[in-house]
TrEMBL record:
Listed name of the protein: Oligo-1,6-glucosidase
Any GO BP: oligosaccharide catabolic process
GO MF annotation, one: oligo-1,6-glucosidase activity
Residue stretches making up the Glycosyl hydrolase family 13 catalytic domain: 14-429
Pfam families, per database record: Alpha-amylase (PF00128)
Taxonomic source organism: Modestobacter italicus (strain DSM 44449 / CECT 9708 / BC 501)
UniProtKB keywords: Glycosidase, Hydrolase
Known EC number: 3.2.1.10
InterPro entries linked: GH, GH13_cat_dom, Glyco_hydro_b, O16G_dom_2
Length: 563
């Protein structure tokens, strides 16, 4: 084996620009704000910033609806500011990976405006246009070309009245899907990607990239229980030409460029077996996948029906991914991103007595796996879910559409809100808590979404010089990964697969074995009974002040070196 790729030792930090730092007082985070907070990233020690979309956008889905791929949205700044940010990150040795959202555009993108203008427009075929279902009239309920349910509620088809045809949108109706079957679409995307690489960016995180190839037959999907719609995912998750498209993209965009580039495929629904194919270096598709299995374990049916995670389910899932990509391929490791509720509230315990310990325990568990860890802004501070009191506190198109649709179908509005509260994507999108002042130091204006009131206690300023803070623990985990080949590349072995509360595993390389023990609960356990080999082992890193040699306290997490 040659030198392992640089990203096997790297940690990625995700910036969701709208909520990171506002430099101009309009209440929305921006590029200038990121530039003001670069010391935070250097202090943490991260290697890569993944920047969520800053392109021109009507912001129907906070920038995941792009109207110009080669312009910066004025709400975030200018191309000059972008170039300055890129140079400043590079000066600090940090790479910048852009979000690439090319499964769909905004409905305001000139490509779609043209495509919509007439059935004979040269760009008509750049999107998925279809007549109503045979024998039905456009606009009639059920006349949509397929029965598919959109990720953001309702059908995946929107009627365009003037032409009497429908266009496909897997997400919001403001996000029409591009037709990748058309080679002109692929060439336009490749050219745009080359333009950003020529500008100096270090790669792309590719939004829902496993949805770009669809079964052109567009068959109905199996009916969804209690819904007028069906599940079309078999027709668009890892569709027939997905590997061909990614290999072509690699050839057209990345071949011959420096090794410093990174490609991350965000792939909802991807299996371990498929991920091996996507990330096998010999196939030249993407460097790593960003998969969703573990964040799909704590609900029944859909995300609005959440229930507590069973730790053995998590072990089974993570264990399969570790084993499946042990010899070929690479995975991303994450709890949080801008689409997920906050991990400390979801999988930990955000009550005051356990918040710090559970946040650091979860981080330890994650960062010691094999794969590239992702830290989502605020996670390194132990930021928690927000106390959304009313519907007016929410902003996200997914949450708002779901509420409207459920209430229209007869559900009680308060019960719907109660189901949304713990899982809304807005939990991840409240502003980063920089200090204890008004609006947490995020803005001098009125924030676009309210700051979590707990910022008076939970903020970066309070944690920066505290060696026991969640922030300090993340710093230590990142430093450990940088220093340890065993953490980067060691073999993974799951221990205690059926234990309900304790998550334990080893990582081994070249004669060194690290034992990781995490008590994912507030219940104490006897370490000497569970894992006798842990007793007397050298403590490499722990999250509690004075860990007991034989007893595991609640949320106790340790990295031990076995002799
Ligand atoms: O998300 C892809 C996706 O399928 C999910 O993360 C989805 O948003 C979530 O499960 C709904 O609960 C990506 C982006 O990360 C997300 O912010 C965008 O809204 C979406 O694609 C469309 O671009």
């Amino acid at each position: 084996m040659g030198e392992p790729p640089w990203w096997t030792s790297a940690v990625v930090y995700q910036v969701y620009p709208r909520s990171f730092m506002d430099s101009d007082g309009d209440g929305v985070g921006d590029l200038g704000g990121i530039r003001q907070r670069l010391d935070h990233l250097t202090d943490l020690g991260v290697d890569v910033v993944w920047l969520s979309p800053v392109y021109a956008s009507p912001q129907a889905d906070n920038g995941y609806d792009i109207s110009d791929y080669q312009a910066i949205d004025p709400v975030f700044g200018t191309l000059e500011e972008f170039d300055a940010l890129l140079a400043e990150l590079h000066d600090r040795g940090i790479k910048l990976v852009m979000d690439l959202v090319v499964n769909h555009t905004s409905d305001q993108h000139p490509w779609f405006v043209e495509s919509r203008s007439s059935t004979t427009d040269p760009k008509r075929d750049w999107y998925w246009w279809r007549p109503p279902r045979a024998g039905m009239t456009a606009g009639e309920p059920g006349a949509e070309p397929t029965n598919w349910h959109s990720f953001f509620s309702g059908p995946t088809w929107e009627l365009d009245e003037p032409s009497g045809e429908y266009f496909l949108h897997l997400f919001a109706r403001e996000q029409p899907d591009l037709n990748w079957e058309n080679p002109e679409v692929r060439q336009a995307v490749h050219a745009m990607m080359r333009w950003w690489l020529d500008r100096g960016v270090d790669g792309f995180r590719m939004d829902v990239i496993n949805m770009i190839s669809k079964d052109v037959g567009l068959p109905d999907g199996p009916p969804l229980p209690g819904s007028p719609y069906g599940d079309g995912s078999a027709s668009y998750l890892c569709g027939p030409r997905i590997h061909e498209y990614l290999q072509e993209m690699h050839r057209e965009v990345f071949a011959g460029r420096p090794d410093r580039l990174l490609t991350v495929g965000e792939m909802p629904g991807v299996t371990v077996e498929q991920a091996r194919l996507f990330t096998d270096p010999a196939r030249a598709e993407v460097d790593m996948v960003f998969q969703f299995e573990h964040v799909g374990l704590d609900f029944d049916g859909d995300k609005w029906h959440s229930r507590p995670l069973r730790l053995r389910d998590l072990k089974a899932s993570f264990g399969r991914w570790q084993a499946g990509l042990a010899d070929v391929g690479w995975n991303s490791l994450y709890w949080d991103n801008h689409d997920q509720p906050r991990a400390v509230s979801r999988f930990g315990d955000d009550r005051p007595a356990h918040r710090r310990d559970s946040a650091t325990c979860l981080a330890t568990l994650l960062h010691l796996h094999r794969g590239t860890p992702y830290v989502y802004q605020g996670e390194e501070l132990g930021m928690a879910n927000a106390p959304f009191a009313t519907l007016a506190d929410l902003r996200d198109v997914e949450s708002l559409n779901h509420h409207a649709q459920a209430v229209a179908a007869g559900a009680d509005p308060d019960s719907v809100l109660a189901a949304i509260r713990p899982v809304s994507r807005d939990n991840a999108r409240t502003p980063v808590q920089w200090d204890a002042t008004e609006h947490a130091g995020f803005t001098t204006g009125t924030p676009w979404i309210a700051v979590n009131p707990d910022h008076v206690e939970w903020n970066a300023a309070a944690q920066r010089d505290d060696p026991r803070s969640v922030l300090a623990h993340h710093r230590a985990l990142i430093a450990l990964r940088h220093a340890s080949w065993t953490v980067q590349l060691g073999d993974f072995t799951m221990l205690l697969p059926d234990h309900d509360d304790v998550y334990a595993f080893t990582r081994a390389l070249d004669g060194e074995t690290l034992l990781v023990v995490c008590n994912v609960s507030g219940t104490p356990y006897r370490l000497d009974e569970l894992l006798p080999q842990a007793v007397g082992a050298e403590l490499v890193l722990g999250n509690l002040a004075d860990p007991d040699p034989v007893a595991l306290a609640g949320w106790d997490a340790r990295v031990l070196r076995l002799r």
